[in-house]
Write a structure and sequence with these properties.
By secondary structure, this protein is an alpha+beta fold. Helix content is 23%, strand content 35%.
């Protein structure tokens, strides 16, 4: 039933009001802003365990949050360069989770790159001329085994030449706002490739948004044709670090770059699940540990063959394991603690509580203003970082008749980054209506 009177709705945040008289809308005569347009996520600001050397950053992409340990300058990032390589390849050649994607034939140039990298003690995965590998297998080798020769093969397969592919890498970096990054190769072994911790998280976030990338970096173990079964070079993958379960992403090390590591975890709070990222660069090589010079980067063991002469015309040959220390041994705990600290800092934020009054419906008749509250019917929650600002917008329904208790008269939307929640706004009571005598006199 349409009220033959003035009915005004005043809703906080939107700063708008509607009116109805005899079925026709009229301007409101009063506006009240009961809800601020922005609400700050409460809680103490977290004190993150930043490393004492190098540089570090954390981010929660869904919340639009990022922080870094201090002023940054571009530095070598070793195999973290392959994050950009993988994103370029997957954007050019999308592949479903589990693959296989296109088949790539290994060329003599690919094998020559493998031989060159192997002799240079670089991270490699064995290949042979004419071998057929799927794009999924190549991504496994690139991201879990950090194979430099596979980075080269993918670059040429994608763009024709490594030069053309590097141009794509730099174009991607520019599009992602990686203003401190510049690449000269697809693997990160070249001295001219440089980035920052904050920039590494930008491309890591872009990768984690691609289902295939996210699935590959989460694999603790892979099986490749000539390599066989091999563990991910990031041993944290799939492990619980206290309350944190690591789901990716990549490590890197060279003598010039030092230890470099990007890790990702998920946190669920307030019914919301978000991905948290942490990056640490430039960590020193473990003190007191001999520097590995005769094994591919990332290896933990290799073999050495020793021949001894036992007498004239006789000899004994033995093969024994040679321990190659983990160059990221001291980088890992630093990154683990930083990731755990960042995960703990994400908190549930109730922006609008259920029952909160956010406006008023006013019906004026008989010389009396009849006011009824508009309330939030369900709590509006987001996950947030203490100190972040949540935007609040309110919209209302212009036709209010019949104005019964519980009637939806609008909605409230809260937004933080890409996270949002929308809740209905309802009348807390029925709007009083005039009796027959008033309608008879004013009909």
């Amino acid at each position: 039933m349409v009220l033959p009177a003035v009915v005004a709705v005043v809703l906080g945040g939107a700063g708008v009001a509607g009116a109805v008289r005899a079925g026709a809308p009229e301007p409101a005569d009063h506006v009240s802003l009961d809800v601020p347009a922005r609400v700050t996520v409460g809680g103490p600001r977290p004190m993150l365990p930043w490393p004492v050397t190098g540089q570090a950053a954390v981010s929660v992409p869904a919340l639009g949050f990022a922080a870094q340990s201090g002023p940054e300058r571009p530095v070598p990032v070793a195999s973290l360069t392959k994050l950009t390589t993988a994103v370029v390849v997957l954007r050019d050649h999308p592949v479903p989770v589990g693959g296989p994607g296109p088949t790539i034939t290994i060329t003599p140039a690919d094998v020559a790159a493998y031989d060159h990298d192997l002799k240079g003690d670089q991270s490699t995965v064995p290949v042979q001329v004419g071998e057929h590998l799927t794009e999924w297998q190549m991504l496994e080798a690139l991201l879990t085994q950090s194979a430099n020769n596979i980075a080269y093969a993918l670059a040429v397969w994608d763009a024709g030449t490594q030069t053309a592919f590097v141009a794509k890498m730099n174009a991607l970096a520019s599009s992602l706002g990686m203003t401190a990054s510049h690449f000269v190769d697809a693997s990160g072994v070249a001295a001219g490739s440089a980035s920052t911790a904050a920039d590494c998280l930008k491309v890591a976030a872009a990768g984690m948004a691609i289902p295939a990338f996210r699935a590959v970096v989460a694999m603790p173990v892979v099986t490749l044709p000539l390599l066989g079964r091999a563990a991910n070079l990031v041993p944290e993958i799939g492990l619980d670090l206290g309350d944190v379960r690591v789901i990716g992403v990549k490590s890197g090390f060279t003598a010039k770059a030092g230890g470099c590591l990007v890790l990702a975890a998920q946190v669920t709070t307030g019914g919301r699940t978000v991905t948290v990222l942490a990056a640490v660069l430039g960590q020193p090589y473990p003190a007191g540990v001999p520097f590995p010079t005769h094994a591919p980067s990332g290896s933990s063991t290799t073999t050495t063959t020793t021949t001894t002469t036992a007498g004239a015309g006789s000899s004994t040959t033995t093969t024994a394991p040679l321990y190659i220390p983990d160059p990221l041994r001291d980088t890992r705990p630093v990154t683990d603690r930083l990731l755990a600290g960042a995960v703990a800092a994400v908190v549930p934020a109730t922006v609008l509580a259920a029952g909160l009054r956010v406006g008023t419906v006013r019906a004026t008749w008989g010389g009396v203003v009849h006011a009824v509250a508009v309330v939030v019917s369900l709590p509006a929650r987001v996950a947030g970082w203490p100190g972040q600002v949540v935007d609040v917008t309110v919209e209302h329904t212009r036709r209010l008749a019949p104005g019964r208790r519980g009637q939806v008269v609008g909605t409230a939307r809260v937004r933080l980054g890409s996270e949002s929640a929308t809740v209905p706004l309802r009348l807390a009571a029925s709007v009083p209506e005039p009796g027959w005598w008033w309608r008879a006199l004013h009909g």
